[in-house]
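INTERNAL AUDIT FORM
Audit reference: QA-55
Scope: verify that the stored structure record matches its stored sequence.
Auditor: D.O.
Record contents follow.
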Amino acid sequence: MATATDGKSTGIAAVQQAFAACAAAGRRAVAPFVTAGDPDVETTLAVLQALDRAGATICELGVPYSDPIADGPVIQASYTRALASGMTLDKLFELASRARQTISMPLLAMASYSLIYRIGIDAFVSRAAASGLAGFVVPDLPLEESDELDAACRREGLVLVRLVTPTTPPARAEAIAERSTGFLYCVSVAGVTGERTALPAGLIDRIAWLRERTSVPILVGFGISGPEQAREVSQVADGVIVGSAVVRQIEAAAPAAAMTQAVEQFVGELVAACETA
């Protein structure tokens, strides 16, 4: 975990340093998504190590949930596999703690707010910080109901990434952008996650508009399916988030060694595509 200016190790500092290192290397950020426990905890740990070797900037670690939010069929299936293998929140925190011993990229938990609320906001955030998680992406948390989680994250030095979508009204998008820490998640298309063949019209203009309203990096997710799209997005955004296309590499390969090799090669291609220097 990185250290802030006050001497305290924080997820915020870790994320900031990850983006700074990325910029110094002359490339945009690549943030893959994987489901914790898919197909099992040991394989997820090996996949995280492979992502780190491939040069991923940050990783979103999906918390399996029986009622996925905005997730397409590929990620839904990965949640089902993880739950069937016995994945739990206790195992998630243990996985994050083990991973932090062997990887340098920050880990963000992508979790439904209902899971956080059920345990208790302070308890969940405290356990996350103790496990080495750098923060959260909470896609179903409305801005108006986020103050308590936001305050808890700030106390523990964790990021709370916010999302804006193509249907977010301008005034609301501006408020969300101002409150996001770590980075702003710009959803490229309306609908669910999944690979798509082309970037939507208006995305470049939307990113430029958002850039005037926040100082944090802007990462684009939903629909980034391969290096060509990653390269195109990286010309205008600070990085890309790639979920379904990464999860598909895990789904399609077996045994575990083949999974890690496939993921490392694919994410390495994304990283190379996002070089700007």
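Auditor finding: record pair retrieved intact. Residues 2-8, 191-196 have pLDDT under 50 and may be disordered.
Action required: none
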